[in-house]
Amino acid sequence: MNGLKTDEDGDATGTIECGVEAAKHFAFAPGWRNLNHGSFGTYPLSIRKVLRKHQDDVEAQPDTWIRYTYPRLLTTARQAVSQYLHAPLETVVFIPNASTGINVVLRNLVFAEGEVILYAPTTYGAVEKTIDFIVETTPAQSEKVAYTLPASDEVIVAAFEKAILALRKTGKVARLAVFDTISSLPGRRLPFEKLTKLCREYKVLSCIDGAHGIGHIPLDLTELDPDFFFSNAHKWLYTPRPCAVLYVPERTQSLMRSTLPTSHGFVPRGKGEARSPLPPRTNGDSEFVHKFEFVASVDNSPYLCFAPALEWRSRITFDRLRGEEAVFAYCQQQAREAGKVVAEKLGTGILGDAVDLANLCNFANVRLPLSFRDDAGGDEGTAIKMAQWMSEALVEKHSTFMAFVFYDEAWWVRLSAQVYLTMGDFAWGAERLKEVCALAKRGDWKSG
């Protein structure tokens, strides 16, 4: 146990070894195998203790805590974010989730005729629907860049560049490009650094959906220098839900005039200072920072768990590594090995090269042993229903969940590596996948 001492709340005073030992720090139900960390994340018991302490404090003296205590604590939390992301303090604020982030960005931008939003073909569904809404309610147009995974970084960057140039030939302009750090389904690290540079060269605003970013891969936002970036801390950093970060450099902060929902920090044109029920700015916060300090009456205590989550991560150990290096190394190695093990047991393959060092992340995508033509009659709607049935069957029959996606006429399972999992968990998961695929092939999904 490496001298680790824990109490019923998961407090720790020593190192935490990845695998079985780390699993003891989470609140999973007996028998539940959490093989889909990537969708919603989870957090250690010791962080739950921090969360509930803040929730108790606000109820003890609501006005005092919300008006005076919370802003000070929030600044401390933002300082932790600033250091972790290598970003100036005045550029980072907290928001509930990545969906809020894309809405803040798109609903603040003012679009003109002929301006186009470019986005990746693997863009998350809620993000694509937000783009659709903007197109429906403003003069903006949208265009999905064309490529299919697996595709090399060079192919992806070239596809975006081709789209930018093609728009220019028609008299239109790419106003904004939306792309991921790591796409959701299939889960694959994208060349977001190169895409950000491309946007800068062609004077296109870059908007990075980093939902799978913070805590998943190392990030240096000063070096990356996007125009907008948002990321969920509750997915991979081990903060409670909801907790996300919005980064906006000073050069584009004037474009972000309102929070979502619009709140006290909004300054209507020609009407002077914002009128807020909270104390005025006294600690040097910018107008941008101040408007996100109090948006609405919601539970903001997850934001205050960012630094404690970093402290917990600092105790993780793996193969002589500790802290962030240990977390990244264990999960990335596990993802590659898990992909191979599951693919071998299923008799299929992995999406792309599992050992592509340029695209290391905590996901592996393994093809399921099903035929689009024979098992789904070549009908995409049927294929999606089958995937939904298999997901539910895993929950009901085996007390686990795995994320399926029907992509490029094949079913894929997205494996999520994590510090509390072992290769034994993935070997077990492979057997369960074989079972549900056999049932789906037999047609059991039709009566589900």
TrEMBL record:
Residues 74-262 form the Aminotransferase class V domain. It comes from the Eukaryota. This is Aminotransferase class V domain-containing protein. Residues 263-282 are annotated as: Disordered. The keyword Plastid does not apply. Keywords: Pyridoxal phosphate. InterPro entries: Aminotrans_V_dom, PyrdxlP-dep_Trfase, PyrdxlP-dep_Trfase_major.
